[in-house]
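Example record

The entry below shows one chain as it appears in the dataset: sequence first, then structure tokens.
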Amino acid sequence: MDWWGIGVILAVGITVVAFGYLDDRRKTRERDAAMAAPPQRDIPRFEPTHSTPEYLNELTARQRPHKLASTDLSELTRTDLKAAQASAASVAAGIATTSFVTDGPTGWAVATDPVVAVLSGRVDTVRELLPLLERAQCAKRPLVLAAPGFSPEVLDTLAANTVQGKQQCLPVVVNAEQAERLSALTLARPLSHSDLQAGWLPDEALGSIDTWLSDRTTSWLIAY
């Protein structure tokens, strides 16, 4: 074979090797990019033309939306409630934080015809309360929760729901003696941590009262 033929063979061979090398590098880059990219996840009912969803930050979650009416009481209602306090049964246990105040001038949290749940254990997760929240929301009634304690995360979530007008909640921290008294006054049966986890919420386990009024130190149960 003459040198011309050998040159052609070498040129073709070098071209094939170079093409294979470059193609392999391209495939490697594409594979690495695919592995580094986030996985494709289709969002149900999402359309590219939809507006960007809005999310609540910590500040806005604590502010009542302008479109919702104020929860402050009228002077006449305040006068009536102050008169009713004199003869109402009371417990020396108030709202867990001021985030649940519904009447600014008095510092009261007022719940009319609430669902009352007396819990025997501390509440550390909102998940435990989901059946209670759902029950109260379906009935369109406020929810009073009397328990030995609440985690900060639980209180923040309940407060956001209350302030945003989603579900009024009124958490009260009570000891065993106070819980027993509230059970007698509202006919609520104490619910254990196991009950909440199992979603065991028979109607007879939940109590009620005409009006529940609390400040930071005391709760009044007003029956008409």
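Notes for this example: The two ends are 116 Å apart (CA to CA). The mean pLDDT is 84.
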